[in-house]
Amino acid sequence: MAMLKMDQSSVIDFLGLPGSFGRTVDYVKKIETHISIVFLAGDRVFKLKRAVKYPYLDFSTLEQRRQFCQAEVAINRRTAPSIYKGVVPVTYCEADGFTIGGQGDVVEWLVEMARFDEETLFDRLGAADKLPRQLLGNLAAIIASFHMSAEVCPQADFRKELEKTITGNAASFAEFGNGIFDLNSIETLGVAQRAALQGETGERIDSRRKAGLVRRCHGDLHLGNVCLIDGAPVLFDAIEFNDTFSQIDVVYDLAFLLMDLDFIGRRRLANIVLNRYLDITDDTEGLAFLPLYLSLRAAIRAHVGATAACKHSDALEQDRLACDARRYLELAQDYLKPGRPMLVAVGGLSGSGKSRMGRELASFIGAAPGARIARSDVLRKRLAGIDPLSRLSADGYSPDMTRRTYEAVYDETRRALAQGHSVVADAVFAKPEERRAIADIAREMNVPFNSLWLEAPEAVMEARVTLRKNNPSDADATVVRLQQSYDLGNIDWTRIDSSGPKPITLEKGLKTLGLSVVTDRVKGA
């Protein structure tokens, strides 16, 4: 028995047999990583932790594996209770041999999970271009809710851990990066990341910890750890084996997902996630740290990819992994060069397409993953204390409420610009004084200013508002007709006819910002 407890190979062989899981299982799929082996058997999944010890985890004893299996279940039930069923033993006795949850001595521990459709993993959906905007907005709302309810970790020295991360990245690059990366680029990146962590930024990171924004997060929040269950996004496989990986700034947790979306060419979706998250959490100050957090996430992916490339036996796979690693390194460098922030104001009557224009322009403007959108429809609902998709009563559109809403737009714009992040201000801006006020903010904050006024025939706008679904705006055809009587005054913003196809309207907006094709991005003036 002593040998069986020390050597997992017999247990692994047992778990690879369909008969180990009952008569209804005729095939077992095995997925291996350097720290675990996952067995997919019928409608169940069993995860075995390898008896390994690394600088960042220790699964070397049976008791430790039991404790970490229990921790994994407890931590992941926060977001995926329907997946994580519990912890079960593998037992052994002379009469029955190995069994799952049977009689005899416990020789191994497993995490038991419910199986889900692997085709709903978000990395697969992203590769197949099957991640609609609404779904990503729902995911952002789930993450925001999770972060706001997560355990606060005031004892965690997150700033110190970031310093260790930079040092650890450098060591990994030195060991596995030769022949894959330009060594000067690696050194330059490390210097830039350390510089970004020093001074006021480092002090503000400490302040976020004191403010309760360092929490027990997911820790590994990338697309491959999100799936769909009953049509809703579910976060799973959160880190349980090392508190320093999970007791982190909430925005650092989110940054992994944003970087992952950006890497696969979905910056528009990353921008949607970011804005929906901020609409709920009101953590606008977190924007100041995104360049560093995104850079660190990409750098980690870069050296992990380089390590995998060095250890892979297939030459073609080596080349693919090395190529991806270099792309991650380029992203890590680019994230630390966000450029000068800018302010873009988008106005127009209800149904003119201003909010769509603002949403679609945002990912092309400023630091990754694009501009913060200060949308009056969303901020009005926040002031009223309701969900953005809930409908307001008439009181929500009183003159006083409208005044407060515009003040909220101006305030959010200032807050985001103060973090060095670009802003798209989206509101009707029907009154000349409202248009002057948003332009004054650009002068006050010393940032470039662009302004667009969208317009379309009344019939087109009425049709648009009538067909809206899942939209923060409550405007209907009656509102559109009422707005035709507005005295708009002199409109000196760039006027855009939005009555044509959506791509053409977007192209007009991009050209106003100095862009001629939708693949370009602008970081400043």
Throw out a few tags for this protein.
single chain, 525 residues, alpha/beta, Phosphorylase Kinase, domain 1, Aminoglycoside 3'-phosphotransferase, Chain: A, domain 2, Rossmann fold, 3 domains, six-stranded antiparallel beta sheet, 16% strand, disordered N terminus
Task: Explain this structure.
About 50% of the residues lie in helices and about 15% in strands. The chain is α/β, with parallel strands linked by helices. The protein has helices spanning about 1-5, 10-15, 60-75, 120-125, 135-150, 160-175, 185-195, 200-210, 245, 250-265, 265-280, 290-310, 315-335, 355-360, 375-385, 400-420, 430-445, 460-465, 475-485, 500-510; strands at about 30, 35-40, 45-50, 55, 55-60, 85-95, 95-100, 105-115, 215, 225-230, 230-235, 245-250, 345-350, 370-375, 425, 450-455, 495. It is built from 20 helices and 17 strands. The radius of gyration is 26 Å and the shape is globular. Strands 1-2-3-8-6-7 form a six-stranded antiparallel β-sheet, with helices on both faces. It has a five-stranded parallel β-sheet with strand order 14-15-13-16-17, with helices on both faces. Helix 6 packs parallel to helix 12. It has three domains: about 1-115, Phosphorylase Kinase, domain 1 (2-Layer Sandwich); about 120-335, Aminoglycoside phosphotransferase (APH), C-terminal lobe (Aminoglycoside 3'-phosphotransferase, Chain: A, domain 2, Alpha-Beta Complex); about 345-510, P-loop containing nucleotide triphosphate hydrolases (Rossmann fold, 3-Layer(aba) Sandwich), CATH 3.40.50. Strand 10 and strand 11 form a beta hairpin.
